[in-house]
Amino acid sequence: MLNEREAESCYLGQFIPLHYHHNMLMDSNRMQAFKTAIQHVVRPGAKVLELGGGTGVLSWFAAQQAEKVWCVEFNPDMVNEARRLLAQNPQGEKVEVIHADAFEYLPPEPVDVVICEMIHVAMLREKLLEVIANFKQRYLEKFGGLLPIFMPEAIIMAVQPMQQEYNFEGYSAPIVQFQETNAIYANSRQLAEPAVYSIIDFSAPIDMLISWQGSFSMTEDGNLNALRFITKNILSVLQQQSSTIDWLNHYMVLPLPSALQVKAGDIIDVSFRYRGGASIASLQNALQAVIRQPESITVHGEAVFA
Questions:
Q1: Given strand 209-217, what is the order of strands in its sheet?
Q2: Nearest 5 degrees, angle CA 153-CA 113-CA 250?
């Protein structure tokens, strides 16, 4: 019988099907970004820990330079798959695949780098924030000293008002949609520029509660019926080059509870609040968007609008 954490993992998607992990191997943007970042961060002779290792490919990237890699995976099917695949690849013997809960595991000795790709758009569903916050506390209690480098090093999240088509061959269905970041969707129209609503630095204390209140000035007339969520993962900071190695999650477009007919120049106030790692529905239920009404002022006894 599943315990509470295992049951939540099944519901939120930590026990995602094997073929999904295989699809991630075929995602060239993801693979190239992580490979480049890991080559930059992992120095020869380093000790590396990966939390949530999946197929083991990121641990294998690290093993090309590292002396030792511990790859922790909670899903027993993925543990077997990672061991099978690593055995077929040179340097795979440097990776020890451990069947354990990332919330509980600590390496037998201090490590230089921690890789954790438990990443979902808007930091929903996956438990990255909670896992890293928990790990940092337990690691310092056991080893003291400095914390390792975390990958990703930071995450930038933004939100954008959208007009989204929800007509599917005559069937109206306002649903959550995920979009490729490098594709053009004719049924999606941007109504304003995106706004950053959260920056998470993994070297600093992590706040599990994510909330935002902000406003947008509409750049076009339209039917504001959705918000697009954008998540940019800063995998590694290249300080000497003053640049970063990034990876963008798929965009996530969430329908609003009520559509707003807007005109260019309208100011829209938007707010939401959710906990990192929670369900998509928890964010959907918190979405609010309203057209800001002009403020009335009195001039010589007559009411006018500012």
A1: 209-217, 267-275, 288-291
A2: 40
Using DSSP's 3-state secondary structure scheme, residue 259 falls into strand
Domain boundaries, the chain: 4-117, 154-291
Per-residue pLDDT tens digits for 217-255: 999 999 999 999 999 999 999 988 889 999 999 999 999
Name the token pair of 55. Answer: 């197929």
Residue whose tokens read 């961060």 = 41
242: left (phi over 0), alpha (psi -120 to 50) or beta: left
Asked if 259 contacts 232 with a C-beta cutoff of 8 angstroms, the reply is no
Burial letters 8-30, b for 16+ CB under 10 A, else e: ebeebbbebeeeebeebeeeeeb
Helix axes 18-25, 76-86, angle to 10 degrees: 40
CA of 52: how far to CAs of 24, 76, 116, 181, 282, in Å?
14, 12, 6, 24, 24
32-86: pLDDT as tens digits: 999 999 999 999 999 999 999 999 999 999 999 999 999 999 999 999 999 999 9
Closest to 252 measured CA to CA, from 179, 156, 155: 179
CA separation for the pair 27, 206 (Å, rounded):
29
φ/ψ of 298, rounded to 5, equals -110, 125
Give the H/E segment covering residue 25.
Answer: helix 18-25
Beta bridge partners of 158: 196, 230
Q: What is the CATH number of domain 4-117?
A: 3.40.50.150
Q: Which fold has domain 154-291?
A: Hnrnp arginine n-methyltransferase1 (2.70.160)
C-alpha 132/C-alpha 138 separation (Å) is 10
